[in-house]
Design a protein that fits this description.
The chain is mostly helical. It is 65% helix and 2% strand. The protein contains 22 helices and 4 strands. The chain has helices at 3-24, 28-47, 59-75, 88-100, 117-129, 134-155, 160-168, 172-181, 200-206, 208-227, 235-241, 246-266, 273-294, 313-340, 348-360, 371-393, 397-404, 408-419, 421-433, 459-467, 469-473, 482-487, and strands spanning 106-107, 110-111, 303-305, 364-366. The strands form 2 sheets. It has a two-stranded antiparallel ribbon. The protein has a two-stranded antiparallel ribbon with strand order 3-4. A hairpin with a 2-residue loop joins strand 1 and strand 2. Helix 15 (348-360) runs antiparallel to helix 16 (371-393). The longest helix is centred in the middle third of the chain and has 28 residues, at 313-340. The chain is globular.
Length: 491
């Protein structure tokens, strides 16, 4: 596989749901304009010379990636092949709803304002055939994870074990809390929403729809940093990802936008208007209808500074220090030691930007379960993981050990970084026990029942029954919104 082919297929994969958005979710004039512009951008991108025709992945590499991404797909819970978290009630009903009803989906005349990107391609197939095919869901998910893993694999110099570790980074506080719980010690009181970050592997088990664009954006950004490419190459994949996942894409957009704007300010003489239009302005315009669609909610998402939702300030401080502070201390201390030791790495400015976002993001709540933090931190953990693991990837593990063995602090921090994998391995064990094959055996005498697709009629009912009325209302559209007046297709 060439560098160029990987870029092209990744962009096409992200773009397919966007074409369906333009076909079904907007009126004819906007659909024509959006489809033509998106097609132009994809063609322009595919003909560009920013990515080479050099083969970067041979057959052996691809076999390893295929097997690893197959493993991720199996343990994710998709298609009921392993343990499924409660979020699968919502995932599954979306496939059923997309198959059964006209697009855009509505409830009581109001549009359901949700990020359907992951679901619409399988949903389109189901609508054409009249039945849900789990093979389609599985293959679609597998391809997305495979493409994301390809990028991480290239960034980390084809060390698959480091790809695994970067997916697990961020779970050390959860491991620490689990160890304390063995002695019946709670570090803080758990409240109605958490101030914590989960690894990308943990998020895979909850939101496979959001992990795929996160892997693609994060992987492409890591690759751009490694190859010292212009970061405006990331604007298009970020724009295409808004239809897939709001919060990871929003945070990725902040990061990419800030860095691109910085390059415009620092190097004004190197900027060409034609490139600014094609690489930045047009991609933004392509995703604008999606953003307007998201703003059509009847009720604003639950939001505000975290301390306005907490009565006990001391509990909030402890929760922040344990879940955010410990991670930041490990990440920043290890990164600083790398810099002092002059180990090879990427541009330091994006790293500092990432640290600032990790520290400040938990201070503001958005969404009933604090989705802005839980999902928005996903690309940040992925990127900081690549920063911290890249020096390990340039040599063998033994050679790196010889280099750092006289640096006990660095060695200890690396061990803490790797320890997050313990939580992920426990999740793998859970998936290995809770699945249709093991159900009814000695390992799992209680059996296993996959979550159905058609138990509820629509996602509004699922959110209402399984979560709360507020959870359902936050995705209900306003019939008088700008989207309904000027963007929606005629009814």
């Amino acid at each position: 596989m060439t560098e160029k082919f990987l870029r092209n297929i990744s962009i096409i994969y992200l773009a397919l749901p966007n074409f369906l958005f333009y076909f079904y979710w907007v009126n004819i004039p906007i659909a024509i304009l959006g489809t033509v512009t998106l097609s132009y951008l994809i063609l322009k991108d595919s003909l560009g010379k920013d990515y080479s025709l050099e083969i970067v992945l041979n057959a052996g590499h691809l076999v390893s990636i295929i097997v690893f991404s197959l493993f991720l797909t199996l343990v994710s819970g998709i298609c009921g092949l392993a343990f499924q978290n409660v979020d699968y009630w919502a995932h599954n009903v979306k496939f059923y709803e997309l198959m059964s009803y006209d697009w855009p989906l509505r409830f009581d005349e109001a549009v359901i304002s949700y990020y359907f990107g992951y679901y619409v391609v399988p949903g389109f197939v189901f609508k054409m055939t009249g039945e849900i095919s789990e093979i389609v869901i599985f293959i679609w998910t597998w391809i997305g994870l495979l493409l994301g893993v390809c990028w991480l694999y290239l960034v980390l110099n084809k060390k698959l074990i480091l790809v695994w570790v970067v997916l697990c980074i961020g779970d050390f506080p959860r491991l620490l809390k689990a160890l304390f719980s063995l002695f019946s010690v709670n570090l803080y009181s758990f409240e109605d929403f958490g101030i914590e970050i989960w690894s990308n592997f943990e998020n895979l088990l909850w939101v496979p729809n959001q992990i795929i664009p996160t892997l693609l954006i994060g992987g492409m950004m890591g690759y751009a940093l490694k190859k010292r490419q212009q970061l405006d190459l990331l604007v298009l994949p970020v724009a295409l990802s808004f239809w897939w996942a709001v919060f990871p894409t929003f945070i990725s957009g902040l990061l990419v936008g800030g860095l691109v704007f910085r390059s415009w300010i620092l190097f004004p003489g190197e900027q060409k208007w034609s490139r600014i239009v094609n690489k930045s302005l047009l991609p933004f315009l392509v995703c604008a209808p999606v953003l307007i669609f998201f703003l059509s909610h009847k009720a604003s998402p639950l939001s505000g500074f975290v301390w306005t939702f907490r009565d006990a300030t001391s509990n909030f401080i402890v929760e922040y220090v344990v879940n955010i502070g410990l991670n930041v201390i490990i990440f920043f201390s290890l990164y600083s030691l790398y810099k002092r030791a002059k180990l090879p790495g990427f541009d330091s400015i994006p790293a500092y930007f990432i640290f600032v976002l990790i520290v400040t993001l938990p201070l503001y709540r958005m969404g009933e379960v604090n989705d802005l933090l839980f999902r928005g931190a996903m690309p940040l953990l992925l990127l900081i993981g690549m920063y911290l693991l890249y020096p390990l990837s340039i040599s063998s593990g033994y050679d790196f050990f010889l280099m750092v063995r006289k640096k006990p602090v660095m060695m200890a921090l690396i061990i803490l970084l790797f320890s997050s994998s313990i939580i992920c391995l426990e999740r793998v064990f859970r998936a290995a026990v809770h699945n249709p094959i093991i159900a009814g055996t000695v390992l799992n005498k209680h059996g296993f029942e996959p979550i159905p697709y058609d138990r509820y009629n629509n996602v509004y009912e699922v959110l209402q029954m399984k979560w709360s009325q507020k959870g359902a209302d936050q995705y209900s559209g306003d019939t008088n919104s700008y989207y309904e007046k000027y963007i929606a297709p005629q009814r």
